[in-house]
Amino acid sequence: SNYLEAAWEAGQYDGAQWGVPLDLHGLITFYNDELLEELDLEHILDDDLITVDELLELEGQLPEDVYAVTAHFAPQLVYNWQYNVGDGVGESAEDIDFSSDTYVEALEAVHALQEAGLMAPEDSDAAQMFRSGRSLFHPSGTWEISGHDDVEGFSWDLAHSVQLDAENPVNHFESHSFVQMNDEDRDPVRDEAVADFLEFVRTNSLGWAEAGQIVASTDTYHSEAYQEHPQAYFTEPENESLLVTDNAEFAPYVGEAIWDETQNMTFGRYSLETTVQRMNSTTHAQIEMVEAP
Predict the structure, then answer these.
(1) Which of 14, 62, 106, 273 falls between 20 and 30 A from 39, CA-CA?
(2) What is the mean pLDDT of each run of 10 residues along the chain (293 residues)?
């Protein structure tokens, strides 16, 4: 195949291929390896996984003004955990219920981290908290790799996304994909030009890798040059089975609700009950709008 399976499948919907992938991208975990060693906490990574339970065990164990985890991507953790402790975000409108056990477990987990004083302040710059040595772990995307590298003397490494359930680890990624609309009147020469462009991108993806991209092209993935990049770790044969992508019809609405409301509950502005009610209300109202005749 010309593309990694997970990236190719991200462009499928209803049994048809709609997109040609550029990349894979999603939430991973950066960690400050020198700080972990200094605090004698390297054991957290003994199994290459970081769990919420392991983070909660750090309550009261960290120096003042040092946090276990940054706050910005807490909503994306809630989204990702639907594939870690559940069956996903819902393939149909009937499947979407933010009061379900998996959503409640995920929302309560990020709130617990905050309540324990282990999550950095909501208004802090997550990347700067990590780079300045004030956070052990930093959930973010591989696009930050070059930024971390630019900090002189800063030692970091990366690991899988934080998990709720270590027995079913997943890395939920998405794919930027190229899609061309149907147009019976389009000049075939234009179609040929598009095909040539896609082939050029597929065979010249290494440049994007320098900025942290997880490439979709198998040609680039198998090159020695790409394997030198840290993000190649996530598509190594032993880790490829952890990759999960989704193409659920209403996933964007689910994601929007999670991003709009998670921090409200995490930082105590709303109760759990109010949060899930707001999420259900807005998401199903959006679905009703698009499904209206």
Answers:
(1) 106
(2) 91 90 94 97 95 98 97 97 94 94 98 98 97 98 94 96 97 92 92 95 90 91 93 92 88 96 97 98 95 77
* pTM of the shown model: 0.94
Structure tokens that stand for 157 in this block = 């490494």
Of residues 145, 166, 208, 191, the one with CA closest to residue 7 = 208
Q: What is the per-residue pLDDT for 63?
A: 96
CA dist list (Å): 216 to 123, 161, 206, 209: 34, 19, 11, 10
Amino acid at 41: L
Which residues have CB under 8 Å from 235's CB, separation 6+? 4, 24, 214, 221, 243
One-character DSSP codes across 140-155: EEGGGHHHHHTSTT--
Strands 214-215 and 23-31: antiparallel
Contact criterion met (CB below 8 Å) for 62 and 68 = yes
